[in-house]
Amino acid sequence: MGSNSESAMQNFQRRTMIVLLVTQIVGTIGVGAAPSLGILLASEVTQNEAWAGLARTASTLGAALLGIPLGNLAARKGRRVALSSGWLIGAIGSAILVPAAQFSLTVPLFAGLLLIGSGSAVSLQSRFAATDLASPQRKGRSLSLVVWVGTIGSVLGPNLGVPGRVVGTHTGLTVYASAFLIAAACLGLASLLIFVLLRPDPLLTARAGTAAAEQPRPKHRIRVLTSGLRTSTRQRQGMLAILTAQAIMVAIMTMTPVHVVHHGGTIELVGITISMHILGMYLLAPVAGWMVDRFGYHAPMFVGIAILTASLLIGAIYPDYMPAIVASLILLGLGWSFMNVAGSALFATAVEPDLRASAQGGVDAMANLSGAIAAFIAGPLLAVSSFAALCLIALAVLVPVTVSLVRRR
Fold first, then answer.
1. What's the CA gap between 235 and 409, in Å, rounded?
2. CB–CB of 364/344 below 8 Å?
3. Residue 275, CA distances (Å) to 141, 157, 228, 268, 280 in order
4. Residue 159 is part of a domain; what is its CATH number?
5. Considering 99, 116, 138, 352, which has the largest number of Cβ atoms within 10 A of its Cβ?
6. So where does this one cross the membrane (predicted)?
């Protein structure tokens, strides 16, 4: 009987992974438009650096604001409802950006970018969904595999301006409006795939054997999570790694398109640069997951810190040399990947099972909030100083997590 149950669980996990992997590819195509095209659209529509800076952070802020509600929704209704709802909200946001781009409308611009951030939130939560039914020996690899397949969609997303030009010639839409129309279709399809195919629900299935106890209310879950962060070194260390990597990555990545354009770069060069960065974010995620399962959590964190340090030093030393900026952005993505995979896996195993979905939504919300704050601060810093100075400041942000890891080790 136990063998049949184990075999059924493996089949559920296999089916869950296939659905998550396909959906992650489709959905991240839509989400990937925000970091490059959304940033350039914000600058074009607002024609004001302060407002443009706020608009650039809107999608990250949206991911932060929606992370906790979507996590709580997963805790109550399961992954299927939460993930499909998040992708659908992102599709609505992308659809709003079509008229915003076509007619240069500021308010719809902010609203659309805010809502498309929901896609980022569920893209992050999908990696945790991959661990719900995974065996303890394969949690790191399952998580990292979902992160890894995001490479395909996230590399294509920043380049939606290319098919956008083709769509624009047939519809009369601008390149930005056409690109976000394509993004809306991708996000809508991701929502439909999750809602129809993610059965049985991985979180509810994993909880089936232990669900006799009543699930905590949302406010109680938040109190218990806060208490856990105060008492659990593992939770704190996992969260610190996630937040640090996210803040550094978002700050530098958000300002790079502006830096490239100021040096005469085209929208195509911006798209290629961000695509290479995103390739770095996801390409070696399975290696990070394997390191977590094989060597524990600290080794890949140290690797991530070393790679981030190299990235920021290259950006600081060669800020005006475009090949160096591309190399720096690739390393930035790689460093984020190792830190994020290791930190996420550590945090997931350190939280009580009944609180896991809400806690994961909470940590993703905090990560996106830290990214939004970092991006908003990075704009004025770039305006009053330089890209090199921004890289050096980001380097200083690495110090606390490095000290924490050394002490813990």
1. 15
2. no
3. 24, 8, 37, 10, 9
4. 1.20.1250.20
5. 116
6. 18-42, 54-74, 81-103, 109-130, 142-161, 173-198, 240-260, 266-285, 297-318, 324-351, 363-381, 387-406
Cβ partners under 8 Å of residue 267, min gap 6: 37, 40, 161, 175
Q: Residue 292 in contact with residue 341, Cβ under 8 Å?
A: yes
Domain that holds residue 18: 2-203+217-408
Cβ–Cβ under 8 Å, residues 156 and 276: no
- At residue 4 the predicted structure's pLDDT band, cuts being 50, 70 and 90, is low
pTM beyond 0.90: the answer is no
Angstrom distance (rounded) from CA 168 to CA 161: 10
* 125 within a domain of the structure (yes/no): yes
Specify whether the CB–CB gap between 150 and 341 falls below 8 A. Answer: no
Average pLDDT over residues 286-312: 93
Q: What's the token pair of residue 391?
A: 């890289």
Top-confidence range, 92-101, 339-348, 366-375? 92-101
Q: Is 59 left (phi over 0), alpha (psi -120 to 50) or beta?
A: alpha
Q: Which two tokens stand for residue 302?
A: 């140290």
Query: For residue 13, which amino acid is it?
Result: Q
Listed in sequence order, the residues at least 6 apart from 320 whose beta carbon sits closer than 8 Å to its beta carbon are 263
Rounded to 10°, the helix 39-46/175-197 angle is 140
Query: What pLDDT, on the 0 to 100 scale, is given for residue 227?
Result: 61
Whether 359 is in a domain gets the answer yes
Q: Are the C-beta atoms of 277 and 332 separated by less than 8 Å? A: yes
CB-based contacts of 130, cutoff 8 Å, min separation 6: 16, 17, 20, 142, 143, 145, 146
212 assigned to some structural domain: no
Per the domain annotation, does 211 fall within a domain?
no
Q: Where are the beta strands (DSSP E) in 14-133?
A: none
Q: What is the CA radius of gyration of the chain?
A: 20
